[in-house]
Specification:
Distance between the termini: 66 Å
Function: Key enzyme in the regulation of glycerol uptake and metabolism. Catalyzes the phosphorylation of glycerol to yield sn-glycerol 3-phosphate.
CATH class of the largest domain: Alpha Beta
Largest sheet: 7 strands, mixed
Domain Carbohydrate kinase FGGY N-terminal: 11-255
Shape: globular
CATH topology of the largest domain: Nucleotidyltransferase, domain 5
Bound molecules: adenosine-5'-diphosphate, SN-glycerol-3-phosphate
Structural class: alpha+beta
Binding site for sn-glycerol 3-phosphate: 17, 87-88, 139, 248
Number of helices: 17
Binding site for ATP: 17-19, 270, 313, 317, 413
CATH superfamily of the largest domain: ATPase, nucleotide binding domain
Helix content: 25-40%
Enzyme class: transferase
Length: 499
């Protein structure tokens, strides 16, 4: 056997909403070792969500050390590091001390909903969509930044004087990993702020003025795969080049090797994020889906359309934790497979309203079509199927904006469920592929870092590494699944509040 080239390993930092992880990959994209830490969520008021940015930083450092240790490697063996992160979450810190001025405001936080309503009208929404690809919504960073500047004593004056720095989590980690030497972000993360013009790829002065955000706060925006500096020697024992930063859903698109227009991935965790590569021209949605930067490499930008479902795996958690129908999420597959169909039962998991393409925040969930024969199996199956029906809603909306996918690559915890993947293929009338490496987010960050330092020649070379663990073919006729989907549409109509 040829000797293992120790210098060919890659470190991926995957900083998510509930946990921070580090994974060491070999050059073929196989996992060598990993480490993970969960951290506290803070809910200071109804619909507010905060994170302790310092805790995120110390956890990230700890999991990097653990993962490298478990891999039996030292930092000197790592060719590069890639960072992927929960997007939109907003941190502002003091440039002199590196201390945050407040806890991070998380992407889920709705405290600026009123502010967004006050700023929004039809022409503003159209203007924002045209420049940023996004919608006026508290989800994105701009109104979170303004909130911090207006609610932390003296922050606005200090920001204008250049004393403070803003970053999404990627930039916050980069600052600390480089000992305060680099204040930068990448184009995917910048494209989630509402301050970034996705066409000319720069911070937009008119957007900054509109949201009242001083330019002095902002990081430099670099390519997704580029030189972001090096991890300071003091931290891990040797310098490691930081060669990629990328938002987590975009990282999954890369980890799933969706590099050609028309390729799509869907990540099924608590919620679901579907992303379609649309190529090098931004496509604006007619269904209020998001247009976002998929990646920027060598100065060339690839765009994506993105749609999200608020509740996917969360419906399974609800059946488990609130209704106590089973103990483990994995049991749902056997329960659902023990019957052929739900007998007309539909579960619409609109616990927090309906997202794309309905956009009905006041809608609430329902289980419809109950009879005396309905049991746990029908309800569980209906919950699993609801994720597939919602995906068809999204694919239908996306298909109206751009050519839809010929197959769908899936990942995330719920994609482990064969029944979900099979039903999804039938409902979409499109084959569904599940990859061998399910950690697509971290893998995408590692691939981009490897590309930047020359471990891979091109995206095509990365694409050649992608392998399906299983492909789910379409097994039912369109007419049969259309009838099922019609039933779903009627169920959704019953719970909707908005027209
Ligand atoms: N075999 C399964 N069948 C159905 N749902 C599952 C299965 N395994 C996990 N889940 C669901 O997937 C979610 C966890 O996926 P994960 O990707 O870890 O989510 P997140 O990153 O959002 O925390 C949970 O909501 C869980 O209920
Ligand atoms: O951390 P996750 O996986 O829940 O992803 C969060 C998204 O990036 C929010 O836009």
């Amino acid at each position: 056997m040829p000797p293992v080239n120790r210098r060919n390993h890659l470190l991926a930092i995957d900083q998510g909403t509930t946990s921070s992880r580090a994974i060491v990959f070999d050059a073929r994209g196989a996992i060598v070792a990993s480490a993970q830490r969960e951290f506290d969520q803070f809910y200071p008021e109804e619909a507010w969500v905060e994170h302790d940015a310092n805790r995120i930083w110390t956890d990230v450092l700890a999991v990097c050390r653990e993962a490298i240790d478990r891999a039996g490697l030292s930092a000197a063996d790592l060719a590069a590091c890639g960072i992927t992160n929960q997007r939109e979450t907003t941190v502002i810190w003091d440039r002199a001390t590196g201390e945050p001025i407040h806890r991070a405001i998380v992407w889920q936080d709705r405290r600026t909903a009123e502010r967004c309503r006050a700023l929004a009208d039809d022409s503003t929404e159209a203007w924002l969509q045209e420049r940023t690809g996004l919608l006026m919504d508290p989800y994105f960073s701009a109104t979170k930044i303004a909130w911090l500047l207006d609610h932390v004593d003296g922050a606005r004056a200090r920001a204008e004087a250049g004393e403070l720095a803003f970053g999404t989590i990627d930039a916050w980690l980069l600052w600390h990993l480089t000992d305060g030497a680099v204040h930068a972000t990448d184009a995917t993360n910048a494209s989630r702020t509402l301050l970034f013009n996705i066409h000319d790829q720069r911070w937009d002065d008119e957007l900054l003025a509109f949201f009242d955000v001083p330019a002095a706060l902002l990081p430099e925006v670099r390519d997704t795969a580029s030189d972001f500096g090096t991890i300071s020697k003091d931290l891990l024992g040797a310098e490691i080049p930081i060669a990629a930063m990328v938002g987590d859903q975009q990282a999954a698109l890369v980890g799933q090797a969706c590099f050609a227009p028309g390729m799509a991935k869907s990540t099924y965790g608590t919620g679901c994020f579907l992303m379609l590569n649309v190529g090098e021209t931004a496509v604006l949605s007619r269904h209020r889906l998001l247009t976002t930067v998929a990646y920027r490499i060598g100065g060339r930008t690839t765009y994506a359309l993105e749609g999200s479902i608020f509740v996917a795996g969360a419906a399974i958690q609800w059946l488990r934790d609130a209704l106590h129908l089973f103990e483990k999420a994995e049991q749902t597959q056997a329960l659902a497979a023990s019957i052929e169909h739900t007998d007309g039962v539909y579960l619409v998991p609109a616990f927090t309203g309906l997202g794309a393409p309905y956009w009905d925040p006041a809608a609430r969930g329902a289980i419809l079509g109950l009879t005396r024969d309905t049991g746990i199996e029908q309800i569980v199956r209906a919950a699993l199927e609801s994720t597939c029906y919602q995906t068809r809603d999204l694919v239908g909306a996306i298909g109206d904006d751009a050519p839809g996918p010929r197959e769908l690559r899936v990942d995330g915890g719920m994609a482990a469920n064969d029944l979900v993947c099979g039903f999804l293929a039938d409902i979409l009338q499109t084959p569904v592929e599940r990859p061998e490496i399910i950690e697509t987010t971290a893998l995408g960050a590692a691939y981009l870092a490897g590309l930047q330092v020359g471990l891979y020649e091109s995206l095509e070379a990365v694409g050649a590494l992608w392998r399906a663990e299983r492909r789910f073919e379409v097994t039912r006729e369109a007419a049969e699944v259309d009838a099922l989907y019609d039933g779903w549409c009627r169920a959704v109509a019953r719970v909707r509040c908005a027209d």
